[in-house]
Amino acid sequence: MKHWKTLAAAAVAASFGASALAESIYVPNLSYRTGPFAATGIPLMNGQKDYFEMLNARDGGIGGVKIEFEECETGYSTEKGVECYEKTKGNAVVTQPWSTGITLQVLPKTNVDEIPLLANGYGFSPMADGKTFQWAFNAPAGYWDAASMLVSHLDGLDGGLSGKKVAFLHLDHPYGKEPVPLFEKKAAEMGFEFLPIPVGLKEMQNQSAQWLQIRRERPDYVLMWGWGAMNAGAITEAVKTKFDMSKFYGVWWSGHDADLALVGDAGAGYKSISWSFPNADAGVMADIKTHVVDTGKSLSNPEEMAGVFYGRGVVMSMILAEAIAGAQAEFGTGVVTPSQVRWGLENLNITEARLAELGMEGMVPPFSTSCANHTGHSGGWILEWDGGKFVKASDHIMPDTSDYAELIADKAAEYAEANAPWPVNEACNATN
Amino acid sequence: MIYRTVGQFKTSYRLDQALFPVRQDAFLLGVILIFAWVVFPLTASEFAFQTLLIPILIYALAAMGLNILTGYAGQLSLGTGAFMGVGAYACYKLITIFPWMNPIVAILLSGVFSAIIGVMFGIPSLRIKGFYLAIATLAAQFFLVWLFEKWAWLYNYNASGAIQVPNLEMFGVFVSGPQAASVTQYFIVLAIVSLMTILCINLTRGNQGRIWKATRDMDIAAELIGINLMKSKLTAFAVSSYIIGVSGALFVFMWRGAAEPNLFDIPLSFRVLFIAIIGGLGSIMGNYLGAILIVGLPVVLNIVPDAMGLDIKSATVEHLNIMIVGALIVFFLIIEPHGLAALWRLVREKLILWPFPH
């Protein structure tokens, strides 16, 4: 029976791309468990998958409808990503593109195919403008949020940022370059010196030139926007050059346990801003353990499950599951359509109380989205590596969204103009 | 039996030199063309257009461009990806500076820029050969990709550093950008690729093709019989880069919709080179066969386990896929080192003699 069902699904997806399967919600994930970024991808994908497995086993899905969570392997390649998108879009209620390259490819198609695009904490920062990007979401936080939070955190440390020198070690790629305009603006306003140091895709593993420059320039802080092999490369190089780890901060994609475990105690003091935190005592983790791990359905292991990335994967799936549940409640239906899920994503309201109900206390800050605000700007915490694991090292920090509201609007308008005709949501009158 | 040539008499030189001296070949090509122009557009799904038909045609065109240079003129090049990038960025700039320009004209023009850059990087070929030339073209590869990243004017100072294809209209129909229908894009790609193929076949069969082949086979001998090597090599670079540039413009405008600089990095060059080598150097048809094997087969293999109802993890499928495609490449190269085109030639010869082999 199951075979016939998957056969039908494959036939439908492959050749006709029509009619949804009865009584289940198809949630594809463009995963990457192979290729150069697999090490960082696997814990995230496992977290995402295990949460939906847990919902299926514990509650029989969402609102009684089973979630058909399926991965399509991209290996982080844009070309495979587009292949996966075409393969899954027939029945999908959401697209989780999982790479900036794939996001850029799929984003222009969202208005035509009308499938919401969910890029939790990555993708294109101007997607926060929900009026322009009706179908794209990057809840709970974008890169400009991260930059703003880091700047305000550093400003609160000894004597403020004025007169300091901040080096910005980033991947020379759309992802790494994205926060630069905001940093430059803040540097001019607050009077600190901003020094961008790009790391080319080919030199991710060998950053001696960049760290030589850091040693020569003697910055007060180093901020890092890295991904994949670049993080481990930077952290080992920082240890080798005896850089003071307490002055070294990363974005949330640069806070992977395995990268820090390489250097162990020598990395103690390294910090990363994050909108998620792995709470091993949370109710949801216990449920995942009983319903997924103990029944042998999980691909993860206890060490990985205690890490930041696995916990983040769980939070990502929770956000999507909440959107689906919200859509079901609003439209009074079990099997939701992509446009109903879009409504759900636009009307997320994750409160402390709701998090407690879900058994996810302290795993993500509360946030809410609206038709104008597709990010939610949840804020986050500074996580510090203590030599063995990441611990919370700050209270909840909020970004100052007024700093870049204009930037978001400008870049969104620019995008819409370049892609004309680009319909915008005229009905929405909330403000970002 | 099917390929019996009995009764097909050649009564004039013209007939003897025809493109298809054997009638069955022409018939076979006719069937393929009917499939490409009529059957596929009517039956293919969005998935088939986007992952099989359009990319195979575009990659085949890129490999054809490389084949002119490497297969016919004998100049090894590792810069194909970068030259595709030149075509793509040139097309993007043309379209954004002159928004009234017809997209097809822009695509065909963008090849000119690629040709100019190609000739510039081809100049070293006058002094160096073989692997040394490959290194010189590798320099083009690194330099151009670096330029795509650093020269913000090329991507109109976009914050993301990527180029995004706008919605372009032609006679009231969207031909590129997210609004365009796959079938329209397919027809445009097919038309341009067909045009380029006819051009290539005639170029390589004619005087110019013979000059290139002479250069490839022994350049000193070629020089002694009066061939101007500089002209021969540089025209090969120009024609090859023109075709590669057009394929790069199609790659971004008719298929990908967006491109970041590292898309045109060395893996793309290798991919096109593999298509040309596995298809068969010095053959036009080989490019199509190679593209089907390298671009099309993995996509088909990916949907097989699903279609058979096997419950295999997507990551496992990907691993299997890489192994199977790798094994097939080795297999084909062992049974016919000169590529798939040579394999087909062999099969055809056997078929003509069948069922009475000598």
Strand content of chain B: under 5%
Structural class of chain B: mainly alpha
Task: Summarize the amount of helix of chain A as a percent range.
Answer: 40-55%
Number of helices of chain A: 17
The topology string of helices and strands of chain B comes to: HHHHHHEEEHHHHEHHHH
Q: Sheet bearing the most strands of chain B, described?
A: 2 strands, antiparallel
Model regions low in confidence, pLDDT < 50 over at least 5 residues of chain A: 5-21
User: What's the end-to-end separation of chain B, in Å?
Assistant: 15 Å
| Widest β-sheet, arrangement of strands of chain B | 1-4
Oligomer: heterodimer
Instruction: Please describe the biggest sheet of chain A, giving its number of strands, its sense, and whether it closes into a barrel.
Output: 7 strands, mixed
Bin the helical content of chain B: over 70%
Apparent shape of chain B: globular
Instruction: State the CATH topology of the largest domain in chain A.
Output: Rossmann fold
Going by CATH, the homologous superfamily of the largest domain in chain A would be: Response regulator
What is the CATH first-level class name of the largest domain in chain A? Alpha Beta
What's the alpha carbon Rg of chain A, rounded to whole Å?
21 Å
List segments of chain B where confidence is low: pLDDT < 50 over at least 5 consecutive residues. none
Task: Tell me, briefly, the overall form of chain A.
Answer: globular
Which sequence of strands runs across the widest sheet of chain A?
6-5-7-8-9-12-13
| Reported CATH architecture of chain B | Orthogonal Bundle
